[in-house]
Hints:
CATH class of the largest domain: Alpha Beta
Number of strands: 9
Structural class: alpha/beta
CATH superfamily of the largest domain: Vaccinia Virus protein VP39
Radius of gyration: 22 Å
Largest sheet: 7 strands, mixed
Amino acid sequence: MTIDENKLNEFVNKAVSDVGSTMSSILVVLGDRLGLWKAMAASGPIDAATLAKRTETHERYVSEWLNAQAAAGYVTYDPATSKYTLPPEQAAALADETSPAFFPGLFEVAAACWAATDKMTERFRTGGGIEWGHQHPCLFQGTERFFRSSYIGNLVQSWLPALDGVVAKLERGAKVADVGCGVGASTILMAKAFPKSKFVGFDYHQGSIDLANKRAAAAGVGDRVTFEVAKSTDFPGHDYDLVACFDCLHDMQDPHGCAAHVHKALAKDGTWMIVEPFASDKPEENHNVVGRVYYSASTMLCVPHSLAFGGPGLGAQAGEARLRHVAASGGFKQFRRATQTPFNFVLEARP
């Protein structure tokens, strides 16, 4: 086999860049946990000693961390003053948890993937899985924080309005189930926006449900929001005006069973809202920056959870056609893509 030296060098440079990104991502998580990003956002230009003092950290570590961030282009450096600045655009993505662009949660998800490396090496050989609740604990917080940003920017403003007649029902007072709710970010956002409606979130993971109930109380919506442990195939209740599944249908052990149960639990004129990672039905059209993230996370997190229970392992890039088939198998007659973003599409299924 003849090797093209130019192509080899190009690939090596790409690999070095990828390694740098991977190692730097660990420092993003550290900056988030230690409050370094928030301190920089509040301070303007700052040197290592001052930043270390304000965050009660060690100056030598902070100095090295700052230079790593400057090399990555996450902060800027002024050699004349020896000070570092977090630009407002980076501050919106790294320091403001209310921003639709807030991103550190995805870096925590990446940390969880690394933590599962030894387990997944064995699973690749056996075909077994790892259920969600057995992953590293940082996965739960990281997933919630990452998706919450997207929900803040889209759920009330564009996703729900894209559904036929749903907002009017919510404004009058609707009955809503959030299936696969995790720690309740999506449920609580909807409850805040529609005070006349009642919401219940279901998830199989007890730890997530416990935290979700605490967050509902802290958000002041505990009188209209409850969270319960239940599977997507047997959650209680009926005559729901809206059942929502946010970024979870592709993970499930029995997505077809979920579709059938949702169909049974909905009111006659109810709506099933399915929010899924954006994906084309053609794999080659997903071979891009976003697809790289989703396929990687799917390999380490989504497919293993489904396979752990003998499920089909749809994966995060399942695509609209496969999801349409899931909905049809549950009895849904109407199915359409209501809207989309670069990271998600919103599907509407009706009986």
